[in-house]
Amino acid sequence: MILPDAASSPRWESLDRPALEKAFTDAGFEADIQNAQGDTNKYATIADQELTKGCGVMVLVDYNGAALAVTQKAQDQGIPVIAYDRPITDGASDPTMIADYYVSFDNEQVGALEGQMIVDGLNALGKDPKTAVVVYMGGDPSDGNAKLFHDGAAKVMGDAGITPAAEPVGVWDGDKSATNFEQALTSLGGKVDAVWVANDTNAAGVITILQKNGLAGQVPVSGQDASVAGLQNVLLGYQTGTVYKQVSLEAKAASDLAIQLLNGETPSAGKDLYGKPFIAVTPVSVGPDKVQMVIDNGDAKASDICTGDVAAACEKYGIK
To answer: What is the mean pLDDT of the chain?
Structure first.
């Protein structure tokens, strides 16, 4: 298995790796899980090493399209490929899934939940979504999921009458997201009513600029991943909510599928997406009153979240 990086989200190393390693080990299989660390050349090298060593199934999280060539190499050797979390497609305007299976969350629903955060946040402030100044801060367009997040969010926000006042090129990078948002805010004369942001890491960057301009806590901001920093921002009121994707459920779906394939069984995968079987896991919207659920599920620790100025917020919401 190849993970993409450690920068776009902390989940890959802290949640996905241990959950998948345990599932494969418990089933009696050896798991070789490596991280490309945001380097497409390293991604290709890791893949060549794993294919040379020999494997029964390849589980790949795409990074900037690097998984496409790896998928084709694996399939040429008769090795099935599971696209994990991010789709591996041919990149066409009407994409076709290249991987044999796709396991992920319902990513349009992830975006829809984020879009609803923005609509609800504006309504709570008494602001008309039809006239609100909303900036769209999406993810890297080379990640197939970024479009799904965007489409899901845009539909919900569009149905409420929202149109983007500014939409910088998407990235999966908190610092770049901060820079891009600051430029957008300047172009809008410092006026913004809400910011749709595709994940918690990017949201953290946006929040630093809102803080710099005295707007933090006054502007609805969305996110996803239920990262420690994201949950802290939710509790502090800087971020309206985060979409919680219980990684253990996604890892179980992928490992169950891989183990069936390794055992020579024919999996019964769910609905079709991009022309291949898609196993979709359901995401959940988390506001401050649901942070405890993430902790109870073992995907975050109160001791990590309730530090410094977050401690009072934890007490307020009964986080323990």
So the answer is: 95
Contacts of range 27-34, beta carbons closer than 8 Å, 24 or more positions apart: 27/255, 27/259, 29/56, 29/259, 29/262, 31/1, 32/1, 33/1, 33/2, 33/3, 34/1, 34/2, 34/3
Q: What is the pTM of this model?
A: 0.84
pLDDT at 83 over 90: yes
Which residue ranges form the domains of the chain, and what is each CATH number? 2-105+246-282 (3.40.50.2300), 107-245+285-316 (3.40.50.2300)
What is the pLDDT at residue 253? 93
User: If you average pLDDT over residues 116-123, what whole number do you get?
Assistant: 98
Q: Is 267 helix (H, G, I), strand (E, B) or coil?
A: coil
3-state DSSP assignment of residue 272: strand
Distance of CA 265 to the CA centre of its chain: 30
276 forms bridges with which residues in the sheet?
Answer: 273
Reduced to 3 states, what is the DSSP secondary structure of residue 10? coil
